[in-house]
Amino acid sequence: MEVPCVRVRPQEGETTRSALAARDLVDDDHEITVADGWLYVPVDDGEAAEREGYTVVAHDVPPRRGQVMPADILGEEPSYERLGDIAILDIEDAEAARAVADAIVESDLPIDSVVNRASKVKGELRVRDWDVLVGDTRTVHREYGFEYALDLASVYFSPRLATERHRVAEQVESGERAFDMFAGVGPFVIPFAARGATCVGADLNEAAVEFLRENAERNGVADRVTAVAGDVREVATEYEGWADRLVMNLPHSADAFLDTAVTLAGDDCTLHYYDIQHDEDPFGPGERAIRDAAEPEYTVRVETRRLVRSYAPHEENVCLDVRLTR
């Protein structure tokens, strides 16, 4: 269909489109097209564009096609999570999961793989089983300007905690010494290091530690990150009294590592302690456990009591930001 278009050389295209958009002249119902060495920007008002000094011609351009979403194919909105270019499903019925996977791939979403949860998080390494419906389990996840390579089949990672990780990272100051006791692929350590902290990340999962090293390189902070494979309780003596900041993101069992946290803490240390508790008293058990481990060697001051997210009916995932002062 022929519509009025501003004709410019392709190298001038983005500048021209931005200028026309600022004047509300771009015709959003038709596609910008390149033909015979010229770029054609459809406009709503050809005369107004000419008054602005542009060359306006009638040109045959296709109508803009709206983005096809999975709901357009299925007739209803499916539930899924995005992690990099992976769509994560949690659907018990295998046929229903296959239908959703096919719709996601057929849509215009930038998705290369679709996986369906086949088990709960399990074992010391906190990994799941997955039914791989399309593609594979490796991806690169982008979060607040950082990139994290990972493989869902061998490491634990939750995109739902992105906001919480960013909240903590914004508290970090250059020159700090930060220790993540259960570091995974580095979503706390990497942004800490980018803010100028010297960081140690420990994890029992050797695959996660390899990704942590890769991600430190990927994000340009390898010179400020030490990755340690093994039980943090076995390496704590090497960093006794070292940390200005500690992260303990191991809900359900972080309390078993509080003695180690006290060993790692310096004279003035901020502890980010993650817990899952009943909603009748979500903060009390963690606070009491911290005091039992740290007092009287440290003065314990709880600076933040934060509900991170609902974990299950009547169960809350919470964080305690605690100041330990020797």
From TrEMBL:
It holds the Pfam family Trm5_N. Residues 80-326 form the SAM-dependent methyltransferase TRM5/TYW2-type domain. InterPro entries: MeTrfase_TRM5/TYW2, SAM-dependent_MTases_sf, TRM5-TYW2-like_MTfase, TRM5/TYW2-like_N, Trm5a/b_N. Keywords: Cytoplasm, Methyltransferase, S-adenosyl-L-methionine, Transferase, tRNA processing. It comes from the Archaea. GO terms for biological process: tRNA methylation. One of its GO terms (molecular function) is methyltransferase activity. This is Class I SAM-dependent methyltransferase. It comes from Halomarina rubra.
